[in-house]
Automatic annotation (TrEMBL):
Any one Gene Ontology cellular component term annotated for this protein: cytosol
Record's keyword annotation contains Kinase: yes
GO molecular function terms listed in the Swiss-Prot or TrEMBL record: carbamate kinase activity
Pathway(s) the chain acts in: Metabolic intermediate metabolism; carbamoyl phosphate degradation; CO(2) and NH(3) from carbamoyl phosphate: step 1/1
Taxon lineage: Bacteria, Bacillati, Bacillota, Bacilli, Bacillales
Keywords: Arginine metabolism, Kinase, Transferase
Domain (Aspartate/glutamate/uridylate kinase): residue spans on this chain: 3-286
Protein name, UniProt field: Carbamate kinase
InterPro entries reported for this sequence: AceGlu_kinase-like_sf, Asp/Glu/Uridylate_kinase, Carb_kinase
A Gene Ontology BP annotation from the UniProt entry: L-arginine deiminase pathway
Substrates-to-products reaction catalysed: hydrogencarbonate + NH4(+) + ATP = carbamoyl phosphate + ADP + H2O + H(+)
Record family assignment: Belongs to the carbamate kinase family.
Classification via SUPFAM superfamilies: Carbamate kinase-like
Length: 312
């Protein structure tokens, strides 16, 4: 049996609590299938829409108040871990109980160390929050000074810095829980971004870490065999959203690197998924990564869909 890390996309978890609760229930089915097959499973999740909404809501609340009433991104990320983890762990508990599987599930509030001098802090790339029209984005930029980019044909979104994850602070706790047979939800939203302050101090920073890169970091730390990246599309494509779009069944690391050089994958969406998959399969022989949709995760496990990234 294998150790599998399943990374769930934040954009595949809906736009409000009701949708997220339902989608978490759907996500629980293929995850529990894997548990039923005897695999050890670790779950991570994105938070792009959720962390953006939380930050925006507190920003509105603080509009007539002091600057200090705004919510920093580290705290917004921590809240998103609780909000999403709550739905996922209950959905998993229910699905496990329905199948008579006795296992406990816990979400771990997870911090991820980044480098204070990471160049990402001066070049925001991570799309978060709601989608806007071009006109709305222009107005918002004029009003707030925030940067907005077009996100994979779905509209314009605010972008914020997304530094490279270096270390998962709570990895040893997660490892002990997994080794004891528990199901762990960790590194949610890419983890709460922190920098090392003094010798033992950690300080939150204004960023949202990419959950695919953080998932890869965690997958290596927990010595995982499979990195399963689940999003809203069944397969990675070339010429995505353009004439000649072609979905890919499997790609070698060399092919993936060439597609990256050809700018086939946008930063902040498909690029970090492919980069995470490459890093993971290169980290140890026999490691494999699959990118597929949450909806068709079960078929992807059976090799009927998804894009497999393999070592040459
Ligand atoms: N080359 C590509 N192949 C497939 N999907 C792509 C590609 N380029 C961009 N995308 C878009 O990127 C999305 C995945 O990124 P995103 O929504 O940020 O992920 P997440 O599910 O982790 O939130 C896909 O649903 C698709 O709309
Ligand atoms: N933090 C993060 O990568 O979120 P998404 O998966 O929602 O983009």
């Amino acid at each position: 049996m294998s150790k599998i890390l399943i990374a769930l996309g934040g954009n595949a978890l809906g736009n409000n609590a009701k949708e997220q609760r339902e989608l978490a229930k759907q996500a629980a089915v293929p995850i529990v299938d894997m548990i039923e097959q005897g695999h050890d499973v670790i779950i991570t999740h994105g938070n792009g829409p959720q962390v953006g909404a939380i930050n925006l809501a507190f920003g509105k609340y603080a509009e007539d108040k002091a600057e200090q009433d705004k919510m920093p991104f580290a705290e917004s990320g921590a809240m998103s871990q609780g909000y999403i983890g709550y739905h996922l762990q209950n959905a998993l508990r229910e699905e496990l109980a329905n199948r008579g599987i006795i296992k406990s599930v816990a979400s771990i509030v997870s911090q991820v160390v980044v480098d204070e001098h990471d160049p990402a802090f001066t070049a925001p790339t991570k799309p978060i929050g709601p989608f806007y029209s071009a006109e709305e984005a222009e107005e918002l930029t004029a009003k707030t000074g925030d940067r907005y980019i077009e996100d994979s044909g779905r509209g314009f979104r605010k972008v914020i810095p997304s530094p490279t994850p270096i270390e998962i602070v709570e990895k040893d706790v997660m490892k002990d829980l997994v080794d004891s047979g528990h199901i762990v939800i960790g590194a949610g939203g890419g983890g709460i971004p922190v920098v090392r302050d003094q010798e033992n101090g950690l300080r939150g920073v204004e960023a949202v870490i990419d959950k695919d890169l953080a998932s890869e970091c965690l997958a290596e730390a927990l010595d995982v065999d499979f990195l399963f990246i689940l999003t809203a599309v069944d397969r990675v494509a070339i010429n995505f959203g353009k004439p000649g779009q072609q979905e890919l069944d499997s790609i070698s690391v060399e092919e993936a690197k060439q597609y990256i050089a050809d700018e086939q994958f946008p930063p902040g969406s498909m690029l970090p998924k492919v980069e995470a998959a490459i890093k993971f399969v290169l980290s140890k022989k026999e490691r494999k990564s699959i990118i597929s949709s949450l909806e068709r995760a079960k078929d992807a496990v059976l090799g009927r869909t998804g894009t497999v990234i393999y070592r040459d």
